[in-house]
Amino acid sequence: MFDMFGMLGKVKEVQAKIKEAQDKLQHITVTSESGAGLVKATVNGQRKLLKIEIDDSILNTNDRDMVNDLVVAAVNSAMESANEKAQEELKKNTEGLLPNIPGLDLGNFGM
Predict the structure, then answer these.
(1) pLDDT 10s digits, 14-68
(2) Residue 51: how many CB atoms within 10 A of its CB?
(3) What residues form the membrane-spanning segments (predicted)?
């Protein structure tokens, strides 16, 4: 027989674990670079950009497009890495609480 109250308890437990993991995401930081370290971007696990560092040597150039490209590359790389770490954290915090359902992606719960 289906245990509705047991299932509701499990859902609440999963929600609490997801909330706990979401709270931890703000403390996870990832820094990525582009242009051999000329541009560095730091992002947290909630995919918020925290810091951009641009080497002075490229700020004095007239190649604005290159600087823009390096900033975009560094930020995108940091965002991807932060997303991967966030998904790992959510998976770790909810492991064993949910059945293995193909296609179930908890990554969107953190963002």
Answers:
(1) 788 778 888 888 899 999 999 999 999 999 998 999 999 999 999 888 899 999 9
(2) 11
(3) none
Domain parsing of the chain, residue ranges: 24-97
Contact between 82 and 43 (Cβ < 8 Å): yes
Listed in sequence order, the residues at least 6 apart from 89 whose beta carbon sits closer than 8 Å to its beta carbon are 21, 24, 25, 28, 45, 110
The 10s digit of each residue's pLDDT in 55-95 is 999 988 889 999 999 999 999 999 999 999 988 888 887 77
Within 13 A of 42's CA, how many CA atoms are on the CB side?
9
Fold of the domain built from segment(s) 24-97: Ybab; Chain: A; (3.30.1310)
Q: Would you say residue 8 has pLDDT above 80?
A: no
Query: How many residues make up the chain in this entry?
Result: 111
Helix 4-25 × helix 64-94 angle, to 10°: 150
